[in-house]
């Protein structure tokens, strides 16, 4: 396998609006990111993905871009961005920006011009249509609820949006639009970016011409995830994008790809893939229902483990997945994947070690390294996230009470991970001296950096230790390039695997059960100096490794 600069890196995602505010307006900003680069360096971060900071009316928190060439004043200036790239570089950290090009904002000048004349040059940057015999071109449901078609006020034209109505989809079938996008990407890459995280990219190829698919709810609409199964030929766009942008700069690109088709993984990542890597979302998708959040079923530990192992196997010989337990669209991993009895520091460390040592590029989402947890909201008015609002409405529509609906929202809301970062135990967790744009999780008194910084047993220091282990030259061959081999796969509540290197093997063994387990590791020789990391004392009994409740042990074999 061809060696690349990013293969041994550890990545971190910053949701800038909630990371650190430096001017008291209650909104995190780019100077706030710069301020904490040393903190990130200490965590061993080599790649830093910043969620969108371009000019945006924020209908979807920056994922609706009105100008790709400018920084939104709420986040700072272009000088701040350039300084961030430079200061990060000094610490051997590469910046990834968020590339949101399935859609832009309805306040982008392209769209404004398009609305003036849907049949003109800019009209072809989007999808415009009129009703025929009183019927819209298709019955697809947007991700945030309702039809994908929205009327241009005062006209009989409709435009297409996969997400919010303030996020009109760009028409990738138009080569002029594609060239505009590549030009913009290269403009950014020239500034010294490490690359991009590519948003919602699977949506750029629609099954055309527009047509109806069988309705899957009583609203008569069909879910986009179903629609996309009928779309073919995305590779033509993505291969072109790779060749005209990423390849030129030897960038790292990580795609937000939820549903590539059977057998297509090698087209999406690896040596000849469209992207360097794509996120492994198998555990995120597990148990999700096209009906909506209320019909979801959170995965059990065994389902979680199955997803991880399935993906590891799928990617072997192809490339590196980017591994996550949470991001700005998901609940906190520790509140979601851990069984209730494991929701404490020990359990948090267990989950951390399990995902972090899989093969791939581990991504840490801000606050994950502290074990930050889900938020509890008592009413939908307190929630900012557009997607939560749509899902709440769906709960009510199917007959749930507001209390029941809030239970669902609290479990899945994207605001769970968007609450301000918890730096210390002063007011507003040290995030801002003003009024935070989104309420701070009240548990900041207990969970914050200051408290964990010098505590050897803290979740933060456990993450630092994992990071150090992965970056230790002695184990790189195994932990970066070695294949993953599931161990005791059939054992319920146990998640264990080998990483097989050329010179060395490592075993990760974790117990998600509230009871002691004994396991036999046939290849284990020198017992005492083989322990690399654990979240508890490591003990053996008659040659068997004792796994206490929620213990994880990482051992080097041979
Ligand atoms: O998410 C894309 C996405 O496909 C969805 O899964 C989304 O997470 C889901 O509908 C939320 O309930 C990306 C971004 O990560 C997300 O923040 C944006 O809202 C979305 O694209 C639109 O740009
Ligand atoms: Ca600010």
Mean pLDDT: 97
What is the CATH third-level topology name of the largest domain?
A: TIM Barrel
- Largest sheet at a glance? 8 strands, parallel
Distance between the termini: 25 Å
Estimate the strand proportion: 15-25%
Reported CATH architecture of the largest domain = Alpha-Beta Barrel
Structure, explained:
- The structure is a single chain.
- The chain is an alpha/beta fold and 558 residues long.
- The protein folds into three domains: 11-102 and 175-461, TIM Barrel (Alpha-Beta Barrel), CATH 3.20.20.80; 109-160, Alpha-Beta Complex (Oligo-1,6-glucosidase, domain 2); 483-557, Immunoglobulin-like (Sandwich).
- It is 28% helix and 16% strand.
- The strands form six sheets. The protein has an eight-stranded parallel beta sheet with strand order 13-12-10-5-2-1-15-14.
- A hairpin with a 4-residue loop joins strand 17 and strand 18.
- Helix 12 runs parallel beside helix 16 (459-471) and helix 13 runs antiparallel to helix 14.
- It binds 1-O-alpha-D-glucopyranosyl-D-fructose and calcium ion (CA).
- Residues 60, 63, 100, 143, 163, 199-200, 256, 258, 328-329, 387, 414 line the site of 1-O-alpha-D-glucopyranosyl-D-fructose (TEU).
């Amino acid at each position: 396998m061809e060696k690349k600069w990013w293969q041994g890196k550890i990545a971190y995602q910053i949701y800038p609006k909630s990371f650190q505010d430096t001017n008291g307006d209650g909104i995190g900003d780019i100077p706030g990111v710069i301020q904490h680069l040393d903190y990130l360096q200490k965590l061993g971060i080599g790649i830093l993905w910043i969620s969108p900071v371009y000019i945006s009316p924020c209908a979807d928190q920056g994922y609706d871009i009105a100008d790709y060439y400018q920084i939104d004043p709420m986040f700072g200036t272009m000088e701040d961005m350039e300084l961030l790239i430079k200061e990060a570089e000094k610490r051997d950290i590469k910046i990834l920006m968020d590339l949101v090009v399935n859609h832009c904002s309805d306040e982008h000048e392209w769209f404004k011009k398009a609305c003036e004349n849907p049949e003109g040059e800019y009209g072809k940057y989007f999808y415009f249509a009129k009703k025929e015999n009183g019927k819209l071109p298709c019955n697809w449901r947007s991700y945030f609820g309702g039809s994908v078609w929205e009327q241009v006020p005062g006209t009989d034209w409709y435009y297409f949006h996969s997400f919010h109505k303030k996020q009109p989809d760009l028409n990738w079938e138009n080569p002029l639009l594609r060239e505009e996008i590549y030009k913009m990407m290269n403009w950014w890459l020239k500034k010294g970016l490490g690359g991009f995280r590519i948003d919602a990219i699977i949506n750029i190829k629609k099954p055309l011409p527009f047509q109806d698919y069988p309705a899957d709810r009583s609203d008569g609409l069909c879910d986009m995830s179903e629609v996309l199964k009928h779309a073919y030929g995305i590779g033509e766009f993505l291969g072109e994008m790779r060749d005209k942008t990423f390849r030129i700069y030897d960038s790292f690109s990580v795609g937000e790809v939820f549903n590539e088709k059977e057998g297509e993984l090698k087209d999406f990542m690896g040596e000849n893939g469209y992207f360097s890597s794509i996120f492994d979302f198998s555990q995120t998708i597990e148990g999700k229902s096209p009906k909506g959040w209320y019909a979801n079923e959170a995965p059990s530990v065994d389902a979680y483990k199955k997803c991880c192992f399935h993906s590891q196997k799928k990617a072997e010989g192809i490339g590196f997945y980017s591994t996550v337990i949470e991001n700005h669209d998901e609940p906190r991993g520790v509140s979601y994947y851990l069984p209730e009895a494991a929701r404490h520091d020990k359990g948090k460390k267990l989950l951390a070690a399990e995902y972090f040592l899989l093969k791939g590029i581990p991504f840490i989402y801000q606050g994950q390294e502290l074990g930050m947890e889900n938020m509890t909201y008592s009413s939908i008015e307190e929630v900012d996230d557009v997607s939560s609002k749509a899902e709440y409405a769906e709960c009510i529509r199917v007959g749930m009470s507001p209390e029941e609906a809030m239970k669902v929202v609290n479990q899945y809301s994207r605001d769970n991970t968007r609450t301000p970062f918890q730096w210390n135990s002063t007011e507003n967790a040290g995030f801002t001296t003003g009024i935070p744009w989104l309420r701070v999780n009240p548990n900041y008194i207990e969970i914050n950096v200051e408290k964990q910084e010098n505590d050897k047993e803290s979740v933060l220091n456990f993450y630092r230790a994992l990071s150090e282990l992965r970056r230790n030259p002695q184990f790189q061959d195994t932990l970066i390039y070695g294949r993953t081999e599931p161990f005791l796969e059939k054992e319920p509540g146990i998640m264990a695997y080998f990483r097989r290197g050329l010179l060395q093997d490592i075993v990760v063994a974790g117990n998600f059960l509230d009871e002691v387990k004994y396991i036999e590791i046939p290849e284990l020789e020198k017992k005492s100096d083989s322990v690399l990391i654990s979240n508890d004392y490591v003990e053996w009994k008659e040659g068997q490794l004792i796994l206490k409740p929620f213990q994880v042990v990482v051992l080097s074999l041979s």
